[in-house]
Specification:
The chain has 162 residues and is mainly α. Strands 1-2 form a two-stranded antiparallel sheet. It is elongated.
């Protein structure tokens, strides 16, 4: 960043993201997390030199920490924007695995004030089309059985399937 450039304020950032699609909000958060990871790595590499008295490295570490704090604040603004639209923040969403809800983050006890016990994992997996356009376990098994039965009995006149 040049010496004259000033980072965008939190208010202006919040205003700028207000009309972005959800996917863009999540992509921006991932981009910011990636940048933070690179800054952490940079600080780790600079630390030995700063400890040996290199003032430039110590200053760079301080600047990096300041930038990381701004990025974390922006991630919080992105999360707030997603939740303001009534959608869960991606990191807080439980996933259904083998009919049981598993939290993507072990330390997350609730999702937007809704206890996990209120969620019905069976309802998630029993629908013929699960959220996101994927098949539930039961529907997939049924379709495979139907397909195998048709193949075994020669009921399929559609030609060769590879």
């Amino acid at each position: 960043m040049s010496a004259n450039a000033v980072p965008i304020s939190h208010d202006r950032f919040a205003e700028a993201i207000a009309d972005l699609p959800i996917g863009n909000l999540h992509a921006k958060a991932a981009e910011l997390r990636n940048s933070i990871a690179h800054l952490v790595q940079s600080n780790e590499q600079l630390q030995p030199f700063a400890e040996d008295g290199d003032r430039d490295c110590a200053d760079a570490i301080g600047e990096n920490q300041e930038v990381m704090h701004r990025m974390e604040a922006r991630i919080a603004l992105l999360k707030r924007e997603v939740e303001k639209r009534g959608l869960p923040w991606g990191e807080d969403v439980p996933t259904a695995v083998n009919g049981k809800l598993e939290d993507q983050r072990e330390d997350q006890d609730h999702m937007d004030g809704l206890e996990h016990s209120n969620l019905d994992a069976q309802a998630i997996n029993s629908s013929s089309r699960a959220q996101g356009g994927t098949l539930g376990d039961e529907e997939l098994a049924r379709r495979l059985r139907d397909r195998l039965d048709a193949d075994m009995h020669g009921d399929d006149d559609d030609g060769v399937h590879l």
